[in-house]
Amino acid sequence: MPAKKEEFSVTPYEVKGKIDYERLREQFGTQSITPELLAKLHHIAGGELPPALARGIYYSHRDLPALLDGYANGKPFFLYSGRGPSGPLHTSHLLQFQLCQWFQKRLGVPMYIQITDDEKFWSSKTGIPREETTRWGYENLADILALGFDPKRTFTFFDSRSIAAMYPLAVRVARKVNYSTVKAVFGFTPSTNIGLVFYTALQTVPAFWPSWAEGRAVPCLIPCGIDQDPHFRISRDLAEGMGYPKPALLHSQMVPGLLGDSVMSTTGDRSDNALFLNDGPKVVERKVRNAFTGGRATVEEQRRLGAVPEVCSIWALWRTQFAETETKFAEVTEGCRSGRLLCGECKSQLLERVHRFYREHEVARDRAKTWAESTIITAAPKAL
Amino acid sequence: MPAKKEEFSVTPYEVKGKIDYERLREQFGTQSITPELLAKLHHIAGGELPPALARGIYYSHRDLPALLDGYANGKPFFLYSGRGPSGPLHTSHLLQFQLCQWFQKRLGVPMYIQITDDEKFWSSKTGIPREETTRWGYENLADILALGFDPKRTFTFFDSRSIAAMYPLAVRVARKVNYSTVKAVFGFTPSTNIGLVFYTALQTVPAFWPSWAEGRAVPCLIPCGIDQDPHFRISRDLAEGMGYPKPALLHSQMVPGLLGDSVMSTTGDRSDNALFLNDGPKVVERKVRNAFTGGRATVEEQRRLGAVPEVCSIWALWRTQFAETETKFAEVTEGCRSGRLLCGECKSQLLERVHRFYREHEVARDRAKTWAESTIITAAPKAL
Q: Is A384 on the interface with B (CB under 8 A)?
């Protein structure tokens, strides 16, 4: 009798239990990222791969090969990713944007960022004040732009600021989505507010925007956590009927939390579960030093048996963002597994990189604030 | 045993059966317009009453006395009424706007008009093209303004044009309305599109707008068909929790159709049921000549028994819009009931007035088109 599979559930609004990513991919009906696909990207990008793909954090997709083939044949795509602003970003929020920045830098493609300050107000269970989601929207946008986006090729839909630009297309999208669809996809109930019910129309807008604005098919690539796939399944279902290309998706695993949770969520009193970008160096140090690892009970045991990177929140940080090369990542992984690299030393090496990232990011963020406003789209290309 | 009451049902999206207006008022839980209330209005307006109130077409209200008392004590209110544009207006669509114009002229109060070109696209059962609801929005707006509104005191929320101005307030409203409420009020089903589900948030915005913009309580009066009461019950329920005055309502009976229907609806092949403002003189003449009346089978019988104005679509036109004075209205009514005024002659007298109204309205509409644009609100008074 096979062992009972662990139960988990993943929706855009909640992740429960320990996630079996391969099963989740099968449940969602998405494609694996194969070595052939990685080779194709490697070739197109001139002999490089984004770390998050090389290390398998992005592990699933929809329609990526056709998008890359199109690019290779002179049909550029654009990137679309977003953020629901309710507080400071933590490092795992950067993952999808770092991937986008890599694509923009290597392939020269436009980036569209959506800041959903309306949706975050509608979806908040704690009743976040309206002013706060907008205020965090500006802060989060600066953090995102600071990752190295090109001011000339980066555009922001800041929902409360961009609504006049988005609405003509949102009206058309909303006509084609009924309540039963959003109920099924998002698990809405009768007590869900009508803002949230409507929201998927606005979330779909950026995916179709360049095609709508330019009057020709412009392919779209959306990197996102696998939990966000359902949002964009609606966009994909609508695309062809409305005459736009189906957006391609690239799905990441969730980044585990510092406290050992399967997701770096900080809801409730879990603020030590993540490294916030506005944490000071002492707080960062404390969180890393206290973080859950895959180490053994004693040094002796760890030297003898090695540690377990797959369950370690520190290894996850190396893997997702802080190992600057594949060589360094392999060295850490091997050191951990072999027992040569103990947790204290591993944390020290990581902290050096985290501190440096924070110092450089602060400067870049201040600079990004000087041009963030210029990225915000406020006018529609056409009235209807 | 009492006779079985006739069945009817009235929702904002459908009117079925022969309406018992007094029962409907009781079902909806609204107040009667009493002689005392009419006397109060008569006094405030300097010794005049709007024809539609004097003749009992507006027969029900919510909170009108307090609004009028406030006005008398130096607290002006504003008017709000709207139109879902899907085609040319017919004369019965003007009823609520003629009442508003009367209030504006006599009391000097501001008027806010909402043109719901988004909602009409979402609610259309026949799939009206998106461009058409906006195009009709401009046409309908000109027809409304042509009734004599003051360009300096009249403002338009043209949804697709005004969304940037409306959205900050709509976001707050939408947070407070859940799906079960709109389902119950509007009879929505799972196949209702999410635009229509969201729409009540935008319909509520004008009722709160002046209070929101000016940062103080500005009372609102909404004249509407009694069938539209549920729309604004939601606004009323929200008002106090959001710190705005509950909008007062003034409800009219429905104008019967020329073909004898209880409502001047032109859905399907019922275009002869109404006088469209873009009908030419010959079409108007034909529709009136063919209209259903309360006359008898023969002239002799009518001379002897008199006719029945209450069931007559021509009498309804005199009553709602075309009897220029109460004296004329009484003369027509009495002539009909006594058998002295036969249907042919009655129709001739009415046609004279209808033709004159059309000629004058055409000129006024052309003039209104030169300033309609200046009434459209496009910017929000504050960002959040």
A: yes
Tell me whether B241 touches chain A (CB under 8 Å). Answer: no
Which pLDDT value is given to residue B12?
A: 66
Q: Percent of chain A having pLDDT more than 70?
A: 97
B184 touches chain A (CB under 8 A): no
Mean pLDDT of the residues in chain B: 94
In 3-state terms, what secondary structure has residue A14? strand
Nearest CA to A194 among B287, B359, B76, B185? B185
Residue B3 has pLDDT above 70, yes or no: no
Report the residue from A131, A167, A197 with minimal CB separation from B384. A131
Q: Which domain holds residue A343?
A: 271-368
Helix (H) or strand (E) holding B111: strand B111-115
A297 touches chain B (CB under 8 A): no
CA atoms within 13 A on the CB side of A167: 22
**Minimal CA separation from B292 to chain A, in Å:** 38
Residues A175 and A79 in one domain: yes
Q: Per-residue pLDDT for A378 more than 50?
A: yes
Q: How many CA atoms, within 13 angstroms, populate the side-chain half-sphere of residue A128?
A: 21
User: What pLDDT does residue A3 have?
Assistant: 45
Gap from A305 CA to chain B (nearest CA, Å):
54
Say whether residue A283 is in contact with chain B using an 8 A CB cutoff. Answer: no
Is B183:B234 a contact under the CB 8 Å cutoff? Answer: no
CA separation, residue A374 to residues A155, A270, A370 (Å) = 8, 35, 9
CA angle A132, B176, B78 (to 5 degrees): 100
Residue-wise pLDDT for B93-138, tens only, equals: 999 999 999 999 999 999 999 999 999 999 999 899 999 999 999 9
Structural domain contains residue B289: yes
Interchain contact, B175 vs A163, CB within 8 Å:
no
> Could you say which of B161, B171, B197 has the minimum Cβ distance to residue A197?
B197
In CATH, what number is assigned to the domain containing residue B334?
Answer: 1.10.240.10
Same-domain check for residues A243 and A280 = no
Question: What is the crossing angle of helices A326-338 and A343-369, to 10°?
Answer: 150
Q: A162 in contact with B at a CB cutoff of 8 Å?
A: no
Considering its fold, how many domains does chain A have in total?
2
Specify whether A36 is located in the same domain as A183.
Answer: yes
Tell me if A192 and B183 make a contact (CB, 8 A cut-off): no
Residue A51: what pLDDT?
Answer: 95
Q: Which of residues 68-127 of B touch A (CB under 8 A)?
A: 118, 121-122
- For residue A12, name the pLDDT band (cuts at 50, 70, 90): low
Per-residue pLDDT at A325: 95
A314 and A177, same domain (yes or no)? no
pLDDT, tens digit, for every residue of A322-363?
Answer: 999 999 999 999 999 999 999 999 999 999 999 999 999 999
Domain check: are B166 and B295 in the same one? no
CB of B208 within 8 Å of a chain A CB? The answer is: no
Which of A258, A284, A317 terminates a domain? The answer is: A258
Q: What is the pLDDT of residues B362-376, one digit of tens each?
A: 999 999 999 999 999
Range of lowest pLDDT (A37-41, B247-251, B264-268, B357-361): B264-268
Residue with tokens 């009136």: B288
User: Cβ of B194 and A193 within 8 Å?
Assistant: no
Query: At which of B257, B284, B319 does a domain end?
Result: B257
Q: How many whole angstroms separate alpha carbon B289 and alpha carbon B287? A: 6
Rounded alpha-carbon distances, angstroms, from residue B314 to A317, B256, B282, B345: 80, 9, 17, 11
